Amino acid sequence: MTYKKWIIAASAAAVVIISGTSIMAMAKPNPIQIVLNGTELVTAKAAQKVDGVVMLPMKEFGKLFGKEVSYDEKTNTVAVNDKAGVKIAESEEKTIQITGNQTETGTYDHLKIKTPIFSRSLPGYNVTNPSYAPWIEFKDVTGDGEPEVVVILTTGYGTGVYQSNALVYNAHGDQILVEDALTALMKRFKGTYTDKALDVSLDDKHYTLPQDLMFSGGDSHGFKPGIGSVMQFAVKDGKLSVTTGVQVSPAEFVGDIKLTYIYKDGLLQAGDASFEFYPEYRP
């Protein structure tokens, strides 16, 4: 009798040990990380290691790399395709749509625009972050009395960086070229340091900022003032414009240049430009 009790007790202890081991194994954090170009990616279902092979559900794989993944049981085939024709932007009136193919690099390419009158392929690309989806305006920016379709694409963003690109089409779908803003401004802007101040010149206007008002201490870092990596297009009051920051150190911007476009000789050309210090830099 005692022997039987010992067997029963030993069996129960074994069950507890085995169960405890299983619980510990389940509670152990998954050490497998998925890193794309140095950035860790988080999946709804974690990757698992089975018989020495790292396994990830097909749908999770598709989400990570912007692919459509499907499995055909009849043919025993896994199909991996680009996400094509994804609607990524729509006008307020819902009459104009932009679609694109999602890539694994975090962008939409092969962009296409469709309006009630025309359909066109758009040059360039746009980031996939929905906060920076293409912006669509239906405004008369040429002054000819007929509204044009203006598409503003975001091609890059980050700390101190915002890059956008403007595409303009007339009512018939013909593209109206837009002069490159950075090239135009580089010809008209100059930033230099004097003994005690920053001097900014734009066209025939000069702006001065004492060095003691700058957090970076002016030329102490040997940084040459210039136009930064911020380029943001907008449409306001029937005018296409672009705003860019003036950078005086790797981490400091002191004001904005605003360039307004004018329509001339079939081209949207760089027109008037103005510079303004940020409020914290004003005397």
Automatic annotation (TrEMBL):
<dbReference type="InterPro" id="IPR012854">
    <property type="entry name" value="Cu_amine_oxidase-like_N"/>
</dbReference>
<dbReference type="InterPro" id="IPR036582">
    <property type="entry name" value="Mao_N_sf"/>
</dbReference>
<feature type="signal peptide">
    <location>
        <begin position="1"/>
        <end position="27"/>
    </location>
</feature>
<feature type="domain" description="Copper amine oxidase-like N-terminal">
    <location>
        <begin position="16"/>
        <end position="79"/>
    </location>
</feature>
<protein>
    <submittedName>
        <fullName>Stalk domain-containing protein</fullName>
    </submittedName>
</protein>
<keyword id="KW-0732">Signal</keyword>
<dbReference type="Pfam" id="PF07833">
    <property type="entry name" value="Cu_amine_oxidN1"/>
</dbReference>
